[in-house]
Amino acid sequence: MTPLYEGKAKRMWATDNPDTLRMEFKDEATAFDGKKKAQFENKGRLNNAISTLIYGMLEKEGIPTHFVRQIDETNVEVKKVEILMVEVIVRNLAAGSFSKRTGIEEGHVFTQPVIEFSYKSDALGDPLINDDYIREMNLATPGELAHLRKSAFKVNEILSAFFAKCGLKLVDFKLEFGRLACDPSVIVLADEISPDGCRLWDLKTGEKMDKDRFRRDLGNVMEAYEEVLGRVRENLA
Ligand code: ADP
Ligand code: UDP
């Protein structure tokens, strides 16, 4: 069997149901547009477990997602969507590319969350775009864009409050949305929410508990992911 799609961190497989896919989390980690690569035992399992718990919580909070069910340790069944080629990034504190672009130091707290969009294109390095680009590139309709903005801020409120309970500061994160294959008028949150696509800092120590441990060679990458999973589990129970 060959997957329908193999990405940097996941494989997408067909299922018996034409409206759903099997999403398999791999142990590979990449950073800097795939230029830095490594394999981490258990990464697939940890991200699947964290993402499954987070999506379950978001659904309960009224956010429609692609999540259907967890199949096993590294696989979930998801509703098939046509992914909007826009990555939606929400930031509560300055970090990463925001700090690089602006010179504003990491850890600066924003007065209000900052939203940004990037064009989902590996070949172009996911460039920063704005509403006008999205319109002219036909990446989303104005109605869809308004929905992305509203949902992303709502997800930020829910996740920031939840991670705070876990003793973690949600610094920033990336979301992907898609149109349901069975009804393209419906947009749902897709892909994953895990320490691969979120910055999480320990509230007490300031320690980084996310993929920056890999990007910046800080060590103990999977130990941090395991700790995040433990805290998420504890605080959902
Ligand atoms: P990348 O493509 O960036 O290397 P991944 O390795 O995470 O990313 O691959 C997963 C791919 O599947 C991504 O392109 C993502 O947009 C896409 N995807 C996520 N959820 C769904 C879904 N429910 N239906 C269809 N495609 C999805
Ligand atoms: N992010 C992501 N995928 C991307 C780009 C960013 O998951 O292709 C996440 C990243 O993990 C961080 C947030 O989005 O939590 C903001 O990332 P930033 O723009 O600072 O990029 P970086 O410099 O980390 O690549």
Please sum up the structure shown.
The model has no long low-confidence stretch (mean pLDDT 98).
Question: Helix and strand layout, with pairings?
Answer:
Blueprint: E1 5-6, E2 10-14, E3 20-25, E4 28-31, E5 36-39, H1 43-60, E6 67-72, E7 75-79, E8 81-83, E9 86-93, H2 96-102, E10 109-119, E11 128-129, H3 131-136, H4 142-165, E12 168-180, E13 183-190, E14 198-202, H5 212-215, H6 221-236
Antiparallel strand pairs: 1-2, 2-3, 3-7, 4-5, 6-7, 8-12, 9-10, 9-12, 10-11, 12-13, 12-14
Helix pairs in contact: 1-6
Residues 5, 7-10, 12, 21, 66, 78-81, 83, 176, 178, 190-191 line the site of adenosine-5'-diphosphate (ADP).
Q: Could you please describe the fold and organization of this structure?
A:
The protein folds into 2 domains: about 5-80, Phosphorylase Kinase, domain 1 (2-Layer Sandwich), CATH 3.30.200.20; about 80-220, 2-Layer Sandwich (D-amino Acid Aminotransferase, Chain A, domain 1), CATH 3.30.470.20. It is globular and about 45 Å long. By secondary structure, the protein is of the alpha+beta class. Strands 8, 9, 10, 11, 12, 13 and 14 form a 7-stranded antiparallel β-sheet that branches. The chain has a 5-stranded antiparallel β-sheet with strand order 1-2-3-7-6. Strands 4-5 form a two-stranded antiparallel ribbon. About 35% of the residues are buried. A hairpin with a 4-residue loop joins β4 (about 30) and β5. It has 6 helices and 14 strands. About 30% of the residues lie in helices and about 35% in strands. The site of uridine-5'-diphosphate has 14 residues, from β9, α2, β12 and β14.
